[in-house]
Amino acid sequence: MKILFTLFLLALTVTSAYAQCKFIILVTTGDREDAGTDARVSLSVSTANGKKLVIESLKPWGQKGHNNFEKGHTDKFEGSGKCLPSKPCRMLLESNGKGNKPGWFVDKVAFTQIEQKNLSQKEKTFNVNRWLARDESPGTLFVVVDDCAK
Ligand SMILES: [Ca+2]
């Protein structure tokens, strides 16, 4: 009886566990002078009810040995984790402002979540179209794109 109960609890834990997802993030750097950066970039996306995916540094999610965030390029980042319950509508993108000519002009960030079990997808593109730089307007190293109210 005790064993059965344990098995029941175990089954409950498995079915209520969060679904696992693969995340693909495409970051497009602007095609203009000095648009590229070698700074460390962090990204956080969240749903309307505040569920978040936080990536402290995109680099380990990228291709090994690849030079990310160069002028006019789109870089791909991949990872996996707990699925977001709905499509994200808010993004925080931040540069640490380090390295040679750290100023970074970002065109857009495209986010895709693929559920590992049923392959259902959630996609959201965040248009940025501005500098993340201390010496270019608006002078901040982070940007929040919030489309949740749309
Ligand atoms: Ca770079």
Q: What is the fold's blueprint, element by element?
A:
Blueprint: H1 2-16, E1 20-29, E2 41-46, E3 52-55, E4 74-82, E5 90-95, E6 104-115, E7 121-132, E8 142-146
Antiparallel strand pairs: 1-4, 1-6, 2-3, 2-5, 5-8, 6-7
The structure holds calcium ion.
Keywords: Signal
InterPro entries: PLAT/LH2_dom (IPR001024), PLAT/LH2_dom_sf (IPR036392)
Domain PLAT: 21-146
Descriptive notes:
Keywords: Signal. This is PLAT domain-containing protein. Residues 21-146 form the PLAT domain. With 150 residues, this protein is mainly beta. The protein has a single domain (2-146), classed as Lipoxygenase-1 (Sandwich). It is 10% helix and 43% strand. The protein has one helix at 2-16, and strands spanning 20-29, 41-46, 52-55, 74-82, 90-95, 104-115, 121-132, 142-146. The strands form two sheets. A four-stranded antiparallel β-sheet has the order 4-1-6-7, with no helix packed on it. Strands 3-2-5-8 form a four-stranded antiparallel β-sheet, with no helix packed on it. A hairpin with a 5-residue loop joins β2 and β3 (52-55). Calcium ion (CA) binds next to loops.
